[in-house]
UniProtKB/TrEMBL annotation:
Boundaries of every ABC transporter domain copy: 3-230
This protein's name: ABC transporter ATP-binding protein
InterPro entries, sorted: AAA+_ATPase (IPR003593), ABC_transporter-like_ATP-bd (IPR003439), ABC_transporter-like_CS (IPR017871), ABC_transpr_LolD-like (IPR015854), MacB-like_ATP-bd (IPR017911), P-loop_NTPase (IPR027417)
Annotated source species: Nocardia speluncae
Lineage: Bacteria, Bacillati, Actinomycetota, Actinomycetes, Mycobacteriales
Keyword Cell cycle: no
Transmembrane segments: none
MF terms in GO: ATP binding; ATP hydrolysis activity; transmembrane transporter activity
Pfam families: ABC_tran (PF00005)
């Protein structure tokens, strides 16, 4: 098991009270599998992803990544854990305008303490895996929306994470490009044996997922496929 959320409860201040974002949520995501998380806006999907990424500490419950419980870890230890085991694909790729596609990936190696030049081979391998080797030298303004999103996916894989967290990757793409991006995420999940959690509003392509769950009012419901969504 690569990612295990156990009885996660998360609340936020709401005036004199507290608003429950996640209510005793449990989720297991094995390596080499993709779990899609669906649900209406404000249901708790983004909160679930933030907790899984160790960006937010829950009020109660445990996050276990590769057999390591994050409970009680210092901030520096959580940062090291994210850097070494977690890849995050954001809703907007937020690429650096002055960097080429391959440099976007190389800078991740620099953050991890490795020389960007030494990581070029790894970066080119990943760009090839997402079908972008031929545009490695182009900057973001020279790429289509789908290509920029694929650069973001490759960047998230640069440090070979065991957990891949993906936030609404098709929100800015048309139907065809969105389907291609989701298919790519599914293929890379299985090829690279990552435990992938995909938050998506796009129910049209849920067949790419090994497991589909729905979040509603902070609770994890029955698999969405069993409820007629898949």
């Amino acid at each position: 098991m690569s990612l295990n959320l156990i009885d996660i409860t998360l609340t936020y201040p709401d005036g004199d009270n507290r608003l429950t974002a996640l209510d005793k949520v449990g989720l297991e995501v094995p390596r080499g599998s993709l779990t899609a998380v669906v649900g209406p806006s404000g249901s708790g999907k983004s909160s679930l992803l933030a907790v899984a990424a160790t960006l937010i500490t829950p009020d109660a419950g445990t996050v276990v990544i590769d057999g390591t419980s994050t409970t009680g870890l210092r901030r520096s230890e959580l940062t090291d854990l994210r850097r070494s085991t977690i890849g995050i694909v954001f809703q907007q790729p937020n690429l650096i305008a002055s960097l080429t596609a391959v440099e976007q990936l190389q800078v991740m190696a620099h953050i991890d303490g490795r020389k960007p030049g030494a990581a070029r081979g790894r970066a080119m391998e990943l760009l090839d895996a997402v079908g972008l080797a031929e545009v490695a030298g182009r900057r973001p303004h020279q790429l289509s929306g789908g290509q920029r999103q694929r650069v973001g996916i490759a960047r998230a894989l640069m440090n070979d994470p065991t957990v891949l967290l993906v936030d609404e990757p098709t929100s800015a793409l048309d139907h065809e490009r969105g389907a291609a991006v989701l298919d790519l995420i599914g293929r890379l999940t299985h090829q690279r044996s990552s435990a992938t959690v995909l938050v998506t509003h796009d129910r049209a392509h849920l067949a790419v997922a090994d497991q589909v769950v729905e979040v509603h009012d902070g609770r994890l419901l029955l698999p969405a496929t069993a409820r007629g969504f898949g």
